[in-house]
Design goal:
The protein starts with 19 loop residues before the first strand and ends with a strand. It is about 30% helix and about 20% strand. The strands form three sheets. Strands 8-4-3-9-10-12-11 form a seven-stranded mixed β-sheet. Strands 5-7-6 form a three-stranded antiparallel β-sheet. It has a two-stranded antiparallel sheet with strand order 1-2. The protein has about 250 residues and is an alpha/beta fold. It is globular. It contains nine helices and twelve strands. A hairpin with a 5-residue loop joins strand 1 and strand 2.
């Protein structure tokens, strides 16, 4: 499948004791520091949610899978965006979120976060001012997921290849964002093959800018029959359309 293996010096397994990840090469030099956060700015979340609502308007049920979910920030970002921007939002839930490290899954299940001011601004914007319906403040810069909102995401400790095997037929959204550089070359190949096998004309696959910058994974998506989705016309923002993909129709 010719996935460019330019990150073969990354350790295939990282210490996910917290959601702040430090990636080192074989010489123990730091290559990248990555912190999971709410509403990462490589996606325009409200535009994406509106596109999703229209793309699946004729679907009765849409399964959402989030691989490499880390502390839960990503699936909760999508859940809040859909709930705030889509009229028939119930058909998208629950989101099935998984990560291979049980420590980070325990953290996700607690649903307690420290957030930055910019994250709070994003929460207010992308939820149309409804963020307090999903989250509540807890102490200084603290945020907790409301019990009523926790049911919208179901977390599980699971390896990504096992999770991909369980993708069901029918309309679906697959988030595998900002994780490709952390996978071994063999797992990259297996995951791409599984995405190709499981995807149809009602599948959206969402990746991250970090994936493209570090692995050129967009080339592999094109080679495997996917095309980028232009889900927003806000070209002045820095969220690239090549982060959302669907199967190329004949």
């Amino acid at each position: 499948m010719q996935i460019k293996n330019i990150t073969n010096t990354y350790y295939p397994k990282l210490n996910f004791g917290s959601n702040i990840r430090t990636v080192r090469n074989a010489d123990n030099n730091i290559i990248h520091r990555n912190t999971t956060s709410f509403f990462r700015n490589d996606i325009i979340w409200d535009d994406l949610a509106q596109y999703i609502g229209d793309f699946y308007k004729d679907s009765d049920k849409v399964n959402i899978y989030c691989f490499g979910c880390s502390d839960g920030s990503e699936p909760y970002s999508l859940a809040a965006s859909i709930k705030s921007n889509v009229s028939r939002f119930n058909k998208f839930f629950p989101i099935y979120a998984s990560d291979y490290d049980d420590v980070i899954i325990e953290s996700a299940l607690k649903g307690e976060y420290r957030v930055l001011d910019r994250e709070m601004c994003a929460m207010d914007g992308y939820t149309k001012g409804k963020w307090r319906s999903y989250f509540e403040r807890s102490g200084y810069n603290g945020l907790s997921v409301k019990k009523s909102f926790k049911d919208f995401v179901r977390f599980k400790t699971e390896d990504i290849t096992e999770s991909a095997d369980k993708i069901q037929k029918g309309p679906k959204i697959i988030l595998c964002r900002n994780l490709w550089p952390y996978l071994s070359f063999d797992k990259k190949e297996k995951l791409m093959a599984k995405l190709k096998e499981k995807s149809d004309d009602k599948t959206l696959v969402i990746i991250g800018s970090f994936d493209n910058q570090s692995t050129k994974i967009s080339d592999a998506f094109i080679q495997n029959g996917f095309v980028p989705v232009n889900y927003t016309d806000k070209k002045w923002l820095h969220a690239p359309s090549s982060n959302v993909w669907k199967k190329k129709t004949p």
